[in-house]
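User: Um, what's this?
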Amino acid sequence: MIVKPDKNEFGDDWAYGKAFIKQHKQEFGFTLPDRDIIVDDVRVRGIGKTFEGLEKTVDQQLKEIKPKEVTSDKIHTKSKVYFEARQRREETPIYKLEGLDVGDRIKGPAIIADGTQTIVVTPGAAVRDRQGRDKKVIRVCTLTAAGSDYRDACRDYDWRGWL
């Protein structure tokens, strides 16, 4: 592979032919001065920047979001789901992820699903929805004994793509 030639060495920073001949001589010990050089492979290296890291963190956004209980009209369907902790089946609402708004709060038991993923919100847990530039993050937390605060263990689920 020939890197971009040095203008100081070859007099031109586009002198790839001269740079190739020099490298060929160095590697193989000879050159073929009357032969054409055929380029059969070109590689390009690019450097990009993203501004994704400049958005607020999940924790910062959660402090600013005004949570609201999800309304029953957002329930896609219901199904009987068995929860081992309660050792019984419970009527469980199923929500489509794309139907939830930022700040929606769902108390378990519940199921949140999209075309490729499913989150089961167990009884005694709650979910709050938060959205970034190109992703959606669902925060699932175990509720305290009071049943209304997000003070215990939390886990963030990150959806990317088709939103």
In short: Confidence is low (pLDDT under 50) at residues 145-152. The longest helix spans residues 16-28.
